[in-house]
Design goal:
It is a single chain. With about 240 residues, the chain is an alpha/beta fold. The chain folds into 2 domains: about 1-125, Response regulator (Rossmann fold); about 140-240, OB fold (Dihydrolipoamide Acetyltransferase, E2P) (Beta Barrel). The protein contains 7 helices and 15 strands. The strands form 4 sheets. It has a 5-stranded parallel beta sheet with strand order 2-1-3-4-5, sandwiched between helices. Strands 10-9-8-12-11 form a 5-stranded antiparallel beta sheet. A 3-stranded antiparallel beta sheet has the order 13-14-15, with no helix packed on it. The two termini are about 30 Å apart. The model is unreliable at about 125-140 (pLDDT under 50).
C-alpha cells in the first residue's frame, strides 16, 4: 500500500486525486492540504511514500516547497502549467501531471512510482544486481563508467546532455566540448541511467530531460543542437512532459 498526501490549494483538484486514489485501491491518502506548510509536520513525523504536489500556490511555489524538504519522498507534480515540466524533472520528480488529469495518465504515474519504490526497497537490502532501468529515485547512480579507447571513463549523470547512437558505438555528449565514444548499445547504457532523468526519444538518441531548452515541432533543442523525436517515441515523450 502506497501512503500518500495531496497538496493543492484547490479543493476540487484534491477531490479528483483523492477519488482516483480510492478507485485504484492501492493508495492510502494519509492527509490532504491546501497549505503546503501544514503538511510539513506530517512529513517529518510519519512515513509518507508519495506526495502529489501542485506548483502554483499562494503560500509557496510547489517547486520551492519540495526543495525545502530534507528527506524527500517520491513526488508527482500536478499542475495546469506544462511549462514547468523540465524544471520538475530536474528535481527528480517521479512524474508530472497536467490538469485536467485523465485517470489513465494517473495510473501511469502510479506505476512509475511503484517501480521506483521497488528499486529502492531492493537496493536497501543490498541487492547490487538490481538494474536501474526498473527505477532510480536519483539518490544513487550519480555517475557511471564507460570504456573509451583504452580506459574506463567516469561520467557524472548531471554532465550528460544527450547520447547519440552511431552503429556499434555511442557518442555521449556532455558539458565538456569533446564527446565520449564508447562501444556499447542503447539497451546496455539505459540500464545505467536513472529513468526519471533520461528518456529515449529516437532510435538514435537518448536525452537528459533536465537539459532540454525547448521543443520545436518534432525537434528537441539542447543548447543549439536540434534532436529529432521519432514517431514511435513521440507520444510517450510528450505524455511524459505533460504536453
Amino acid at each position: 500500500m502506497i501512503r500518500c498526501i495531496i497538496i493543492d490549494d484547490e479543493p476540487l483538484a484534491i477531490g479528483v486525486l483523492k477519488s482516483y486514489c480510492e478507485d485504484l485501491g492501492e493508495i492510502h491518502v494519509v492527509g490532504c492540504f491546501t497549505n503546503p506548510f501544514e503538511a510539513t509536520t506530517l512529513l517529518s513525523k510519519e512515513k509518507i511514500d508519495l506526495v502529489f504536489l501542485d506548483i502554483e500556490m499562494p503560500q509557496i511555489n510547489g517547486i520551492d516547497f519540495i526543495k525545502s524538504i530534507d528527506h524527500k519522498p517520491h513526488f508527482v507534480f500536478t499542475t495546469a502549467y506544462p511549462q514547468y515540466a523540465i524544471q520538475g524533472f530536474d528535481l527528480n520528480a517521479a512524474d508530472y501531471l497536467v490538469k485536467p488529469i485523465p485517470f489513465v495518465r494517473f495510473i501511469k504515474a502510479i506505476n512509475r512510482v511503484k517501480k521506483l519504490m521497488e528499486f529502492n526497497s531492493l537496493s536497501s537490502r543490498g541487492n547490487e544486481n538490481v538494474s536501474p532501468s526498473s527505477g532510480n529515485s536519483g539518490n544513487t547512480n550519480k555517475f557511471l563508467f564507460v570504456k573509451s579507447e583504452y580506459e574506463s571513463v567516469k561520467i557524472n549523470m548531471e554532465d550528460i546532455k544527450y547520447i547519440q547512437g552511431l552503429k556499434d558505438y555511442l557518442k555521449i555528449h556532455t558539458q565538456h566540448p569533446k564527446p565520449i565514444l564508447t562501444l556499447m548499445s542503447f539497451k546496455e547504457i539505459q540500464t545505467k541511467l536513472p529513468i526519471e532523468q533520461f528518456m529515449r526519444v529516437h532510435k538514435s538518441f537518448v536525452v537528459n530531460i533536465s537539459k532540454i531548452k525547448s521543443i520545436q515541432r518534432s525537434k528537441i533543442v539542447i543548447d543549439d543542437v536540434r534532436i529529432p523525436i521519432g514517431e514511435s517515441f513521440k507520444e510517450s515523450f510528450l505524455d511524459r512532459l505533460g504536453l
